[in-house]
Design goal:
about 110 residues, Oxidized Rhodanese, domain 1, 3-stranded parallel beta sheet, 4 helices, about 35% helix, elongated
Length: about 110
């Protein structure tokens, strides 16, 4: 089993057709990845956090004050949140669906 894993990882690394193992596949070009300390600093300055995880995950635990805006059911969730979002000048930070330890913000 150990040799098979080693061969598989070797193929992944050197074939040029493998998967990138050092970064999240959810992070896209144009995303800004921030450390937890920066996320906390933004929260302390009043940033609005939009949680893109499924609603059940948000209900279990979320960043204090974060609003649920799940990828699944986005249109319905956005329609409910839009009145709260309009008229606010707070910078928004989204928490990715990957449930990673880092936050991600998309610059528009």
């Amino acid at each position: 089993m150990g040799a098979a894993a080693l061969v598989g990882l070797g193929w992944n690394a050197w074939s040029g057709r493998g998967f990138v193992l050092g970064q999240s596949v959810f992070v896209q070009t144009g995303d800004e990845v921030i450390e937890p300390s920066e996320a906390k600093a933004r929260l302390d300055r009043g940033a609005l956090f939009l949680d893109a995880r499924p609603t059940d995950f948000w209900k279990m635990s979320h960043i204090p004050g974060a609003l649920s805006l799940p990828e699944d059911g986005f249109d319905k969730a956005f329609a409910e949140l839009e009145p709260k979002l309009r008229g606010t000048a707070r910078p928004a930070t989204s928490w990715p669906a990957s449930c990673a330890r880092r936050g991600s913000t998309r610059r528009s």
